[in-house]
Write a structure and sequence with these properties.
mainly alpha, two-stranded antiparallel sheet, 18 helices
């Protein structure tokens, strides 16, 4: 019995020691021999700035009233709030003491120099695919192109024991693919460039891919039909980026996708919600070649007819109204649409492309989740800013003008007119959204990188 006890104890010690080593070890880096380097060539810094644009680093690590990359953005999680960190080259509160290897481990593996694990709100499950050259350039930009600012980081609001970071090492082992993006020989250079940008720096899957109960993305590349198939996140529904006729990009051409990323609008839609922030701070600054590559890649991803349903076909609405006097016998919500929505979006829901998007056949009108439409109706939309010029047309907030019932009725009307077949909206859904969201700012917001 004593021998059995000793054997079991020895096994526990070995397993425990192995586990301790695994969760506290630093991932390997190809830059181990590099120290803290500054004074990089201007060309390398410029390339790093473009990678930062592609990755939209500024969106999380800057605030409208703060200095670039000083952190502070609050991000809600089921466990509590976490805050983006200072990533300026300040030596006390930022990353000024990071070597290139330290930077690489933080960006591509979510591990800090003191072996602390980063929450995957930092999209390292995507950044792990970044090339060595892009990581080197990104490091050069942050060390030489960003002004150091001494600003302490805010503590997370996650309480013990859920704030322990070491279990993330196990989460990473299960849910994060390892290795940089590898070109697929069967595809051309344009496709591979688009795949690299979408899967790595662009981390498009972080919003557009559904997540499991363990909060991991259900797919990390085009090998799965779930990749970029749409997901609900932070009060918005990020639609499918696949060739789904109703809920994705099936009716969009490559030129349509390019225009949306380059100009923030096309004949089908105008950026809103989180995508407006991504456009204002990221995609509009990317090169045309890269945007063409992304468009080419996304157009190649097949849709799922079984999931997407019967393709939308425009129909004249039996309940359509063109003026207030004709609404006496109209469907609930029709009068509100005529008085509040029809002038801009049209009595036929066709919009005024490319400035005001159509509601007839829009993805938000066809998906089961009404969150985006509720959010936009309650809170309005952020200003779309192109080349420093804010747009003149903005969806206004109606939270003060319309009740929960009125918003539910008008959205149900929209989602059941002109061939739309989205689910009806309940007042309780509007009430829930009203309680935990705020109106979008009417001021143009473009976060500065320098």
């Amino acid at each position: 019995m004593k021998k059995v006890f000793l054997v079991v104890l020895l096994i526990i010690i070995i397993v425990g020691g192995g586990l301790f080593w695994f969760v506290t070890s630093k991932p390997s880096s190809p830059f181990e021999s590099a120290g803290i380097t500054t004074g990089a060539a201007s060309e390398l810094v410029a390339r790093g700035e473009m990678v930062a644009r592609q990755a939209d680093c500024v969106a999380c690590h800057s605030l409208p009233d703060g200095k670039p990359f000083t952190g502070g953005l609050e991000m809600g999680t089921p466990l509590g709030s976490i805050f983006a960190t200072n990533i300026t080259p300040d030596k006390q509160t930022g990353i000024g003491n990071y070597t290139l290897a330290d930077f690489d481990r933080a960006v591509r593996h979510g591990v800090t120099p003191d072996r602390r694990r980063l929450y995957p709100a930092m999209p390292y499950p995507s950044y792990v695919k970044l090339s060595d050259d892009d990581v080197r350039a990104l490091y050069a930009f942050f060390m030489d192109g960003v002004q150091p600012v001494n600003q302490p980081n805010r503590q997370t609001g996650i309480e013990w024991p859920m704030n322990m970071r070491w279990p993330l090492a196990l989460w990473n082992a299960v849910f994060v693919d390892q290795g940089i993006y590898a070109d697929k020989p069967a595809q051309d250079a344009l496709w591979n460039r688009g795949a690299y940008l979408v899967q790595a720096a662009g981390h498009c899957g972080a919003c557009h891919t559904p997540r499991s109960v363990t909060m991991n993305e259900k797919a990390l590349d085009d090998g799965s039909p779930l990749f970029l198939s749409g997901a609900l996140l932070d009060g918005w529904y990020a639609p499918s980026l696949r060739q789904d006729h109703n809920t994705g990009l099936g009716r969009w051409s490559e030129d349509d996708i390019f225009a949306f990323l380059k100009n923030g609008r096309n004949q089908h839609a105008v950026v809103f919600g989180s995508m407006a922030e991504a456009y204002n701070n990221s995609t509009q600054f990317m090169s045309d070649d890269d945007l063409r590559a992304i468009s080419h890649y996304l157009k190649s991803l097949p849709g799922d007819p079984a999931r997407d349903g019967t393709p939308w076909v425009v129909q004249a609405s039996a309940t359509a109204v063109t003026n207030v006097s004709s609404t006496a016998d109209a469907a609930p919500g029709a009068k509100t649409y005529a008085t509040r929505c029809g002038f801009c979006h049209g009595p036929d829901g066709g919009g005024k492309a490319p400035w005001i998007p159509p509601l007839a056949g829009s993805t938000a009108s066809l998906i089961d989740h009404p969150d985006s439409q509720i959010n936009a109706t309650l809170n309005g939309s952020a200003r779309v800013v192109t080349a420093g010029v804010p747009d003149a047309y903005r969806m206004p907030p109606f939270r003060e003008q319309l009740s929960d019932r009125e918003i539910a009725d008008v959205l149900t009307y929209v989602r059941s007119s002109w061939g739309n077949h989205g689910k009806a909206v309940a007042p309780t859904e509007v009430k829930a959204m009203r309680e935990h969201t705020d109106p979008a700012s009417s001021s143009p917001i473009v976060l500065q990188m320098r």
